[in-house]
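Worked example 4.2. Below are the chains of a multi-component assembly; read each line carefully before continuing.
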Amino acid sequence: MTISLLGTITILVLFFVALATVALAILGAYQRSERMVDAAVQGTYTVATLASFASALIIYAFVSGDFSIQYVQHTSDATMPLFFKVTAFWGGLDGSLLFWVLLLSVFSAIAVRANRRRHADLIPHVIATLGLIDLFFIGLLVFLKNPFEPFLLDVPTSGRGLNPLLQNAYMVIHPPSLYLGYVSLAVPYAFGIAALVTGKVDSAWQASVRRWTLFSWLFLTLGLVLGGLWAYEELGWGGYWAWDPVENAGLLPWFTASAFLHSVMIQERRGMLRVWNLVLVIASFWLSIMGTFMTRSGIVQSVHAFGEDPMLAWTFGVFIGVILVVSFGLLIWRLPLLRARAELESLLSREFAFILNNWMLMVMALFVLGATLWPTLSEHVGQRVTIGPPFFERVMVPLGLALMLLMGVGPLLAWRKTSTASLQRQFMAPLLAGAVTTVIAALVLVDPMLTAAGQTELDMANLPRGLTWGLACFGLCGFTTATITQEFVRGISAVRRGTPGTSLVDASIRLLRRARRRYGGYIIHLGVVLMFFGWAGNSYKIERKANLRPGDALTLGDYVIVHAGLRTSEDWQKEMITADVEVRVDAAVQPGTRSLAAQGEVVDTLQPARWWYFQLPDQPTTEVARYMTAGADVYVSMQTVDMTSGWTQLRVFYNPLVNWIWIGTSVMLLGCAICIGTRRRDKDQSHV
Amino acid sequence: MSARGRWLLLSVTLAVTLAGGLMVGMGAEFDASVLVLSLAGVVLLATLRQMFAVVVALAGGDEGALAQAAVAPGSVSRSALAQEQRRVLRAIKELDFDHAMGKLSTADHTTILQRYKLRAVELMRGLDEDGTLHPQTVTALERGVNSSPARAASSHDCGACGVSNDADARFCKACGEGLVEAHT
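Applying the procedure described above to all two chains together yields the following structure tokens:
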């Protein structure tokens, strides 16, 4: 039996087993039959193992080079390293759908196993919901996109190979990470739906999903940042985020998941916002499916992709509509059960700060969704409108800064009510810190900011946008950092007052254990502050495009960039042209490019290159080179090169503070880990 | 996993290891594709076992229908009460913490705390099946609610280490020194 036949049979069996599981779960819930629910639980595990088997088969086909399977032939070739052969599994559409099924099945099994006893009454409904979602994707595999589809005639003997752009370590981690985030959002959704169906809309369902959502959020964040890092290192246009529809698709559920993580705390403490939390869970899942749809069907980028596979696009469209109607239908049906038993007492309370934060995140999500879909929608009305990054930035920058302000203010407020006397005491230090940071930033950075904006003198009537927002961002970074520090300091001193004689370290550990989620959250906020600090650097970034011959030089901020020569080389996969570009400092800057070349001290020699893969000779890749410091990146990419005359077109960027974004992400992951590792302890405490 | 299942797993692992060792001994080559294929084989075995488990579950008896209390709109279930109680207790903890960090004035802290404590008592009464509390609990709670926390705190500082304790505490929570003499 060929692998392609075995695989196809496996997927068919998978379809029927999933169908049977859903049927058993629904029947079991309806007849209250323990036997059937038990069978459905076992069926969920079976679906997970079957999906793993199908995935193992396709990986085997890749590793052994079975080019009789179309998908394998399209996305791999025999010369690829083993690592990329395995990861080619999710390199194309059909395989990534199978990968999606694999993840969803495994997550369903884990979620069901973890909550089987604790929430026995929700379980059949959870299984049915997750099973139906899984069934949809398995159905896509069976009817539209079978990854095991063989060539019927003319079996080729070699593969076409994976796009060289995708043969990159970030590209290997980035899609699975985003997928983990997307797919795991289905679990909170299923619990929310189960709560609605059973009418047990108290907080029980959230206990099961809070950690899941944090987990999803963690992987979404990681996936987004790695995607940005990939774009930055691989595409060579000098940035990491371009408000591309595919990027936005990942950002959308991130907004709603962040909102949910905040608002769930209010429900936990105060029993408020029950409807809103359900809306957020539904929206997060819906947006994750929408994101898959947008990235997978190609509907957003152009109509041609839509025309290429109208069947897939329509199926997805119907699925998205069904999710929306069914979920909100259930929600409206259960509205009488969802009335809150507490209300907002004061506008100066942490609850209100959380609600504001939710509104802002929601507005951001809606804006990005609207602006992403607008070009496609406008096409149906008439002229296609394109929306570029400046449009996004005009709205998102102020909103992001407002959110950051709220991040600084929120923790200073108490639940329920904050007294005015305490307000003064709380806000004094952070406000001072914010003001000092703004002044320092203004003193140090106004000159480079003006240079970046192309002005020579400070013109108060016509301030460049970058300058205003940049300074505001730096000030807010100072303010929020001070808030977080103050929270830690006061918390530690409160602990030490309660139990005198504890050392500083001991008191910090006690504090973290006493309110781990709270302080873990603050650490995440600190990571966000670092990322904003990195973004603020955009206000004085410099971009240059220049044609240089070996020996020429140009100035870039405080640096001098010297073209030191060109080299060609070749290996078994590709032909390469590499430029040696020297980065010099301390040059007395004088006009005239030739005279510069001899000056200054060389701090680094960058080697940007262009690679021509033999399998794709007309699509050369741009290999970027960077000189990294904590203060800025010097980023060089080679655009075109003429070996006979030596003219090289270089794009040179001075990207200030960009590395703080990646550092901030690591801090965020650390904070997330602290938060995730908390639930068992919480539970113990609540039972004592 | 049952004891039989564990034995089965152990013997299968042993057999696979033996077979693999024999093959290596006879000079067979192991490359990635063989590894992936054997992995697929193991997963297939697990799948078949799991399918069998479905059949076993279906064939099993149906003892005791699922306890699913029908939820009438407007009724407050016991679990909801218990949850609210947990929420109130946690809120009290948090309130004390906020007060200790200086976010709440003492006056606000006192009024909100009293409201929370009353609610907690109410909830406890609701949770108690027959609606009555143990007489000692009642007096303890009343003392806790009626005495001003500020006054109570000052009179319950531990004589040995100075830590402030709850109004009804009999031993210091930090050092274990007896506190009963302090308020008798």
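Take a moment to check your reading of the output against the notes. The longest strand of chain A covers residues 559-570. The mean pLDDT of chain A is 83.
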